[in-house]
Every structure is written in C-alpha cells, then in structure tokens.
Design a protein that fits this description.
heterodimer; A: 77% helix; B: MetI-like fold; membrane (chain A); transmembrane (chain A)
C-alpha cells in the first residue's frame, strides 16, 4: 500500500508536470523546432520575443485590462457584499442569485452575448469591450468571496460604527475594508489572474489591440516554435512567482 | 450600495443574454440577419447531422473527461492528505497543481508539443521499442481528452483535498476500532464523506469542459467538431449569429440540466 501510494504520487506528478517541463526545456532549443533531440541551449528565442513589439504591446494591454477590470470588479463586489450584509431585505436572495448567475455560464456565451449587444449599440471591439466582459466574469467571484468573508463579528462591527455616527463611506473605508483585507486581496488576485489568462472573451471582443493570450493564439497558427515556448515559459515563471509569494505570505496563516 | 453591481450585471449580462435568445429565433437570408420568431434554428440543430453530432461529441468528451479526472484525482488528493507527512503537504499540493496557474492557451500548446508525431512521448515510446513507429494522437479525440484530463485532475485534486482535510480523523479511527479493514474504511467511510468535494469538482469540470473552445481546437483539430467549435465556426465563416446563438442556448440548457442533476450535492461555500 505504501509503495503503491508513492508510485502513484510519482506517476501523477510526472503526468502533471510533463508538459510544463517540456515547454521550458525546449524554449532553450538551439534549432527551429521545439521537439527532440535537444540540440543545445540558447537564449536567442527569449531575445527574440522580448524585442517583439506586437508581443510586448499585447503584454502591456493584458496588464492594463487585468488591473483595471479586477479593480472595478473588486469595487462593485465590495459595495454589493457590504450592502447585502447590512440588512436582510426581502429581495436579497434574488439579488444574490442574480449577482452570482454569470459564474455558471460559459465564457463563450457571455462573449457572444456582449459581442451582439456591442454590435447593436455601436461599441467597437476593443480593450474597453474586453475589460467590460472581464468585469462580468469576475464580479460574481469577488462578490462571493467578500460576502462569505463578512460574518457575524464583522456585521456587528459595521453596525457599531454606524451607531456611533460614521458616514457610510467612512464605515466602508475605515472599518469594512481593513477588516476584510485578506479577502479583498484574495479576490483581487483571483480576478486579476482570470482576466490575465482569459482567451475567448478577449478573442471575440478585440480587433487591433489584443491581449497576450490572443497574441499567443495567433503565434500558434504558424506551428510549433521555440519562440512560443519561450513566451509560455515566461508567463509560467510569472504565475509561479505570484503563487509561491502568495502561498508564503497571504495564505500561510489561513492554512491548516 | 448594491445598485452599481446589479446595474452592471443587468446591462452586461442579462440584457446581452436576452438579446442572444432573441437572436436565436432569427435566421439568415443571404448575408443578412432577419429577425423572426420561429424555432427553425433549433429544429435544424436536431436534424442536421453535423450539428447534432457536435452535441454528442461534446457530451461524450465531457463525460469521459469528468469520469477519468475524478478517478485519477481522488487517490492523488487522498495520498497528499493522508500519506504525505504534514510538513510536506502544502508543498506537495502546490506542486500537484502548479501548471493550473499557467496560461490556459500555453498549457494546450504544451500538450501539442508533447503529443506530436515528433514529440517527447512518441520519441520515448519508439526509442524504448514499445512502438514500431509513431502513432498519431494529435488532431484526434484522444489528444483533446488528455489535455482536458490534465487540467481537471488539478482542479478536482484541489476540491477533493480541501474536502478531505476537513474530515475529522475520528471517523476513520472509529471505523477501524469497529473492525473495518483499511480498504473498507476508505470505501464505506471516507469516500461517501468526500461526495460534496467530488460533486463540486465534477460539476465545475463538466461546465468548463463542455464550454471550452481552446483545448478541442488546439489538440483535437478540425476532424470532429465540439459544440464550442461549431459556435465559433458559425461566427467566423458565415457571420451566422442566429445559429451561433441557438447553439449557445443549447449549451446553456445542457449546463443547467447538469446543475439540476447534482444541485443537492453542491456545497460551494464549504470549499
């Protein structure tokens, strides 16, 4: 049983890590194809992609869209969660349901709906359109995380602040936000990552200025290339750094 | 305070969705969209062999992927939660889901790299003499399934693991004291208690898998089209928004039915 467990663990780890390890190794391939045999290491492909203007612009676009859409989703989600936690209104179950609803719908469907509506009202495919779509998919997430984080203890603190005469914005800024910092950080981080990595909405709702996943997608059409490996490896490296940093700081206290 | 979020959801989710349902009742005349109120598109989906095939292809792939992923992920989560020493546990979990955090498009590309005719896997199999010559996996359903299973094993490991570590060890101890074998403890005690984690993960797998365009497009190719690929095809080649919308509504109905099917096990907030 014991050896079987370790063998299973190793086999699954090999399966899970195989594509990523292959990706990274062949990003250093000194040759035109990222497949065996490995012909020796070079950094040429990294040099090539770091000086590729279209790619770097897409990277900047992705950062801007992810940052802004995550901030908007976080703000709207925070306001909604604080509002719904304040009093139990008769319609609050319906409102909660409505806010969560986009979570159960495929991104493709959300993208298609937005594309049609934007066509009709004359909003051109753009980074703005993509950002709006990303807020739609991330708002339910931010709302759910923050709403779950407001327990009885937080509710009474908010009520106490109001009873003591704090204005509503003061309650939110000086009481709610500091109390909910870990949840706010987690929600922001998740929303940022989802937007950063999102493909189908960005694919349908951008045209000239594209985000990084869309740019990578168009690189794929020219077949396998170590340059694509290099981009993928860099994106992977950034995600790993962020996840490990969060693991070491934010989630360490909360973990069991 | 709830108003901004509600307005946003109404304007950019409910309204577009309603517009899409309306659009599904329209049809194409030449290159123009003619608004109508007929179910012609839906009728066509269920009579046209290539469209109907897409629904079955998607359902088959999704069911197979969900089953394989659960079967692979459960033992992995269990080993990490119970067999790995506590101080290495977080580390093992982090490692097991590391590629989960990389770009989705890049992950599919990596599999194309690995599974290709000249890729690492074929090289190894031919090199070891297990295969006389490379077998084509790329651009087949097998490639799509492998790519999907890779992603969803990680997702399910997360949901099942977080379920497992919340279980008190007393359940297993009590069962052992009462004479259950180790296998009986797992099968009759632990397994049923992890049903919420399994079902939550399986539902997420189902929803994300059936709605995904990237993996079947990169790995499965164009030999056999899934529902999302058909939707994109309507948009791209013909600008047939009405048919794309009708297919999306069908996709939506399938997801809703799946939700209804496992709703009683879904306890999202516990994870």
């Amino acid at each position: 049983m014991r050896y079987l467990s370790w063998a299973y663990l190793l086999a699954l780890f090999a399966f899970i890590l195989l594509p990523v390890v292959t990706l990274v190794i062949f990003s250093f391939q000194d040759g035109r194809l990222p497949v065996p045999p490995f012909k020796g290491a070079t950094l040429d492909w990294y040099r090539e992609i770091l000086t590729d203007r279209a790619l770097m612009e897409a990277l900047a676009n992705s950062l801007i869209v992810a940052l802004l859409s995550a901030l908007v989703a976080l703000t709207l989600g925070f306001l909604a969660a604080s509002g719904l936690a304040r009093v139990a209104l008769p319609g609050s179950v319906v409102m909660r349901g409505l806010l969560i609803a986009p979570m159960t719908v495929s991104y493709l469907i959300i993208a298609l709906g937005l594309l049609q509506m934007f066509n009709k009202v004359g909003i051109r495919p753009s980074l703005l359109a993509t950002g709006i779509g990303h807020v739609v998919i991330n708002l339910p997430l931010c709302f759910a995380i923050l709403y779950a984080a407001i327990g009885e203890h937080q509710k009474s603190a908010l009520k106490a602040a109001r009873d003591l005469g704090a204005k509503e914005w003061q309650v939110l800024w000086f009481v709610a936000a500091p109390m909910l910092t870990p949840a706010l950080a987690a929600a922001f981080f998740l929303a940022f990552t989802f937007s950063w990595d999102e493909f189908i909405i960005a694919f349908l709702l951008t045209r000239f200025d594209v985000t990084l996943p869309v740019e990578i997608w168009s690189m794929l059409r020219s077949g396998l290339s170590p340059a694509t490996n290099a981009v993928g490896s860099l994106v992977f490296l950034v995600s790993v750094i962020v996840v490990v940093a969060l693991e070491l700081t934010l989630f360490r206290k909360g973990s069991k | 305070m709830v108003a901004p979020a509600l307005l946003w959801t109404l304007a950019f989710f409910v309204v577009p969705f309603a517009a899409m349902v309306m659009m599904s009742l329209a049809h194409m005349e030449g290159r123009d969209i003619v608004q109508g109120h007929d179910l012609g598109n839906y009728l066509k989906i269920f009579t046209d062999p290539s469209l109907r095939r897409g629904i079955f292809v998607s359902l088959e792939i999704t069911v197979v992927v969900t089953l394989i992923s659960v079967l692979l992920a459960w033992p992995l989560a269990w080993i990490i939660a119970t067999r790995v020493p506590p101080r290495w546990r977080r580390m093992a979990l982090l490692l097991a889901v590391l590629p989960f955090w990389t770009s989705y498009v890049v992950r599919s590309y990596s599999w194309a790299l690995v599974l290709g005719e000249r890729g690492v896997v074929m090289n190894a199999l031919v090199g070891l003499g297990l295969l006389a010559e490379p077998v084509q996996i790329m651009a087949t359903r097998a490639a799509t399934v492998i790519g999907f299973v890779h992603f969803f094993v990680m997702l399910l490991t997360l949901t099942i693991y977080s379920n497992l570590i919340q279980l008190s060890p007393n359940y297993a101890r009590a069962a052992e004291d009462l004479g259950a074998s180790r296998w009986q403890v797992i099968r009759l005690v632990i397994l049923p208690l992890t049903l919420p984690g399994v079902m939550t993960g399986a539902f997420l797998t189902f929803v994300l898998c059936i709605g995904d365009y990237i993996t079947p497009q990169i790995l499965g190719g164009n030999n056999e089209l899934s529902l999302p690929q058909l939707i994109m095809l309507q948009l791209g080649r013909r600008g047939d928004f009405p048919m794309a919308s009708a297919l999306s509504v069908v996709l939506m109905v399938i997801v809703t039915l799946a939700y209804a099917g496992c709703a009683r096990w879904l306890k999202m907030e516990r994870l």
